[in-house]
Design goal:
18% strand; alpha+beta; 149 residues; 38% helix; 4 strands; single chain; Alpha-Beta Plaits
């Protein structure tokens, strides 16, 4: 028996950072994402976001690479959102995403951060937030590609 725990904070945004996730219907999207995660054998700890991006705190089975999970999630949600009349302006997700691993000791802190997204973004733009994640996690930023669809 192998024992593993992989906790990821994943962030991805809408195409061109357009505000296409209507706050009135975001829970519908989040419920769809929960079902997707459950079907992969993952566990959702927290989901939240803004009209232009989504944060997910999730553990994934060790046989599922985060990159494959994100790719499949984006494809599935894109198809679902484009067919859903509650997201009429949705034009897809960007190719990029950010994904970071955390210890279970950090789970509560990250979950609270995600829960407070709407409050947080009253004073911090998505670009500032995204840049801070990259810097904090030691990811080199290539300015010519940063948030460049």
């Amino acid at each position: 028996m192998s024992y593993t725990q992989t906790l990821y904070h994943i962030v991805f945004r809408t195409h061109r950072s357009e505000n296409t996730i209507c706050i009135e219907y975001e829970r519908e999207l989040y419920s769809y994402i929960l079902g997707f995660i459950n079907n992969t054998g993952g566990h959702l700890y927290r989901i939240g976001g803004m009209p232009d991006h989504v944060h997910i705190l999730v553990s994934l089975p060790p046989t599922l690479a985060m990159s494959k999970f994100v790719q499949n999630l984006k494809v599935a949600t894109s198809k679902w959102m484009k067919a859903n009349p509650h997201f009429p302006s949705f034009d897809g997700w960007t190719k990029e995403y950010a994904g970071f691993t955390y210890s279970m000791r950090d789970c509560g802190m990250i979950a609270n951060y995600i829960a407070r997204q709407k409050e947080h973004h009253r004073t911090v733009s998505f670009a500032e937030e995204y840049r801070a994640f990259l810097v904090e996690n030691g990811v080199a930023i290539r300015e010519e590609y940063f948030l460049n669809d």
